[in-house]
Design brief:
Length: 211
């Protein structure tokens, strides 16, 4: 058995030809070799993976998820950001399950997580949604002038709710991280306080000899 390879014409993409030299034509001047133009170096914009920390309460025996506690980060409060989209998607998912939802917002800047219907204006806010009472969310509006409240964390079934002292948690974190040595209380906070709250804060700091 014989195999015959048929010749197939090849059409080049680029053809280089040497043109015939005409009589009396001037000799072309040899150009120096081209050097590459140095570019500017700019940062490459890449989508970073977003990792949001949260707390989960799980039933030991069944390993069932009971309660999710979310503490909002700055990216959760930026309109149109991936962080906000991820947060809102997680809340929507939890709200359609038998899992309790606890949301803690200690950030004065940014867009509130609940905008429809709008909640009463406050510096900080905490929301607790029990799985068995989805239509009645508990809401704590918190002023910078008031101590952080003690809230109730819902648990499984008929188990009694557990009190969580947010003020005690804040003080523990503040002391362990030694924020008193890193925070410059001589500077105004960002975002700025209202005129009345700024006056109150200065008097408070003056009493603690921090300003």
């Amino acid at each position: 058995m014989t195999t015959t390879l048929a010749a197939k014409p090849l059409v080049p993409d680029v053809r280089v030809e040497r043109s015939p030299r005409r009589k009396g034509a001037k000799k072309l001047r040899t150009e120096p070799a081209l050097s590459a133009t140095e570019p500017l170096i700019v940062p490459t914009l890449m989508d970073e993976e977003i990792e949001e920390a949260f707390l989960k309460i799980i039933h030991v025996e069944s390993e069932a998820l009971v309660t999710v506690i979310e503490i909002l980060s700055p990216t959760n409060k930026i309109r149109g950001s991936r962080g906000r989209a991820s947060f809102m998607a997680k809340r929507h998912e939890i709200m359609n399950t038998e899992v309790h939802w606890v949301e803690i917002d200690f950030l004065r800047a940014g867009l509130a997580s609940v905008t429809d219907p709008p909640l009463p204006s406050s510096d900080y806010r905490v929301l607790v949604s029990r799985a068995d009472r989805r239509t009645q969310t508990r809401f704590w509006p918190i002023s910078v002038r008031r101590p952080l409240p003690v809230i109730q964390i819902p648990l499984r079934g008929n188990d009694p709710e557990v009190p969580l002292d947010l003020g005690a948690v804040f003080r523990a974190v503040y002391d362990r991280a030694a924020y008193d040595t890193s925070v410059d209380y001589r500077k105004d906070p960002q975002p700025p306080l209202t005129a009345a709250d700024a006056k109150w804060a200065k008097e408070l700091l003056r009493g603690h000899r921090a300003r």
